[in-house]
Amino acid sequence: MNIVCLDLEGVLVPEIWIAFAEATGIPELKRTTRDEPDYDKLMAFRLDILREHGLGLSQIQDVIATMEPLPGAKDLLDPLRSEAQVIIISDTFTQFAMPLMKKLGWPTLFCNELRVADDGEITGVIMRCCNSKLTTVKALQEACFETIAAGDSHNDVAMIRASKAGFLFRTTDALKEANPDLPALETYDELLAAIRAVL
């Protein structure tokens, strides 16, 4: 049986940290996993900036409440979920993702958790597992599933390469150049057709 594993931010929804950076006028928060391959380093950087500006979870959630899935994302998920099992594997956090999952029709999501103090300060992260995307794909394969994966960032490449088929989706020129053997797609129609071809 096939399981399609999709990244969330940049693939189905806008980048949450970029939206928050624009809302707050803090350009440093625009840095994402497209720019920084070391996720722990990236999150430490983000939390330092939040503390410096006195910002917490509620301010981020206020911005997320105004966000919508990327145009066409639900039109990809709905037919795909009728043809295969689909899991969204993301390094985001449940406290960020739930409003967007509702707008996408509640697809299955594997992600992480934030540690939040009583005053709303984000004090840390609880990672679901180490190298969560690759670890999840390997665990699914151990359970006798075949995986098909798509994502846009550094932290997606390992799960894409470990899968029976994988695709870069709306990624950067730098990632395309670093991974010339991986198909790089730009539209949901292309992605759906590519996935269907290997189901």
Describe it for me?
By secondary structure, the chain is an alpha/beta fold. It has 2 domains: 130 residues, 3-Layer(aba) Sandwich (Rossmann fold), CATH 3.40.50; 48 residues, Alpha-Beta Complex (thrh gene product, domain 2), CATH 3.90.1470. Helix content is 45%, strand content 21%. It has a 7-stranded mixed sheet, with helices on both faces. α3 packs parallel to α5, α4 runs parallel beside α9 and α6 runs parallel beside α7. It is globular. The mean pLDDT is 95.
List keywords for this structure.
199 residues; alpha/beta; Rossmann fold; thrh gene product, domain 2; seven-stranded mixed β-sheet; 9 helices; 21% strand
Short description:
The protein is α/β, with parallel strands linked by helices. 45% of the residues lie in helices and 21% in strands.
Q: Work out the helicity level.
A: 40-55%
| Count of individual domains | 2
Largest beta-sheet characterization: 7 strands, mixed
**Rg measurement, Å:** 16 Å
Name of the CATH superfamily of the largest domain: HAD superfamily/HAD-like
Strands side by side in the biggest sheet:
4-3-2-1-5-6-7
Q: Name the structural class.
A: alpha/beta
Distance between the termini: 9 Å
SS strand fraction = 15-25%
Looking at the overall shape, the CATH architecture of the largest domain is 3-Layer(aba) Sandwich
Note the topology.
Blueprint: E1 2-6, H1 16-24, H2 39-53, H3 57-64, H4 73-83, E2 85-93, H5 94-103, E3 108-116, E4 122-126, H6 132-142, E5 146-151, H7 154-162, E6 165-169, H8 173-178, E7 184-185, H9 188-198
Parallel strand pairs: 1-2, 1-5, 2-3, 5-6, 6-7
Antiparallel strand pairs: 3-4
Helix pairs in contact: 3-5, 4-9, 6-7
